[in-house]
Design brief:
CATH topology of the largest domain: Aminopeptidase
Number of domains: 2
Shape: globular
CATH class of the largest domain: Alpha Beta
Distance between the termini: 95 Å
CATH superfamily of the largest domain: Gcn5-related N-acetyltransferase (GNAT)
Order of helices and strands: EHEHHEEEHEHEEHHEEEHEHEHH
Number of strands: 13
Helix content: 25-40%
Structural class: alpha+beta
Length: 337
């Protein structure tokens, strides 16, 4: 309960809420960039219904304020066995409902934690009214992301370089590339160890210098590039990859450029790409890493001490090593003579 908000009741989603879902279907804020760009933005009514199924491992919560305002519906999910959950959507995403967002987040965090999740991720547009609501709910920005949209016309030409499907032999090189180029905050929020490497790799002089992950949907294709700065002519390398998307079927192609890969935007400009949106990638952890001192037993420390040298070594302890060195030298000279 909070001043000016009144009594709030939280409960699981049920089929009676379909009326509210349909009424505010055009006010859905999708907090999953992959879902939004491959399934449509705003999310269609039937797309939302699909993610209400139990087998999707999703948690949908409804908040009912007592001041006559419409109910607030939100959803989070745990997918692919990951340790961090993903916020899926919130509706209605209007400024008047911002005060209810922290209560909704707390309920979703509780449900994700009960299923073994260690945190919650969200991708929110900068101008969205949910941005401040998420910050007040304990979310912190771990990276910025700019989405570029590419059309088909500037992609004519062969491009430069060959992209190859990832194999098991490439896994170590891809993980090394990820660790070298990705900040620690991002590595903690998006651990590569929890994802199957099913993208494409680009080699330059026998070394893997780029990796591309693609997500396909009926409304678009979303690409996540990871390029080393040593890649020569990155615009041509990108064009070579895009030329391989033979089954795009006229769908728009989006490229997500993280803030630590901002130099790639020059290549996207050369391909006549247009900036589509800018997002804040946010995370809230359910656990806190702490360090605690571990004391060793006193007896073990006393028994493992090395004897102190208070004087010179006895003569009998020095003769044997000197003799062994002399004999070794003599044998070596005899061998070469």
């Amino acid at each position: 309960m909070r001043p000016g908000v009144g009594t709030i009741k939280a409960r699981p989603f049920n089929w009676a809420d379909l009326v509210t879902l349909y009424r505010y279907r055009h006010q859905i804020a999708c907090l999953d960039s992959i879902l939004a760009l491959t399934r449509g933005q705003p999310l269609g009514f039937w797309v939302v219904l699909r993610h209400l199924r139990l087998e999707e491992n999703a948690f949908t919560t409804v908040l009912h304020p007592s001041d006559g305002k419409p109910a607030l519906i939100g959803q989070a999910s745990l997918r692919n066995g990951g340790s961090l959950g993903q916020m899926t959507f919130v509706l209605p995403a209007v400024a008047s409902q911002t005060a209810l967002v922290p209560f909704l987040i707390e309920e979703l965090v509780r449900q994700v934690g009960q299923q073994g999740g260690l945190g919650l991720l969200a991708a929110v547009d900068e101008e969205s009214p949910l941005f401040e609501g998420l910050r007040h709910s304990g979310f912190a920005v771990y990276a910025w992301q700019r989405i570029w949209r590419l059309m088909g016309a500037p992609l004519m030409g062969n491009g430069q370089g060959d992209w190859l499907p990832t194999t098991g032999l490439d896994e170590f090189a891809i993980r090394s590339l990820y660790q070298a180029l990705t900040p620690p905050l991002v590595q903690r929020a998006e651990p590569l160890a929890e994802r199957a490497l099913a993208g494409m790799v680009f080699q330059q002089e026998g070394e893997i210098l780029a990796y591309m992950e693609a997500h396909f949907g009926p409304r678009g294709i979303l690409l996540f590039p990871l390029f080393h700065p040593d890649v020569q002519r990155p615009a041509e390398v990108l064009k070579a990859y895009l030329r391989g998307l033979h089954f795009s079927l006229g769908r728009p192609v989006y490229v997500a450029v993280r803030s630590y890969q901002a130099w790639l935007e020059d290549a996207l400009t050369d391909l006549q790409g247009e900036l589509y949106r800018q997002q804040a990638l946010m995370v809230r952890y359910l656990t806190v890493t702490t360090r605690s001192a571990v004391w060793a037993p006193v007896k073990a420390g006393r028994d493992n001490r090395q004897p102190a040298l208070i004087g010179p070594l006895p003569r009998e302890m020095c003769v044997a090593p000197i003799q062994r060195v002399t004999e070794t030298a003599t044998l070596s000279e005899t061998h070469y003579n």
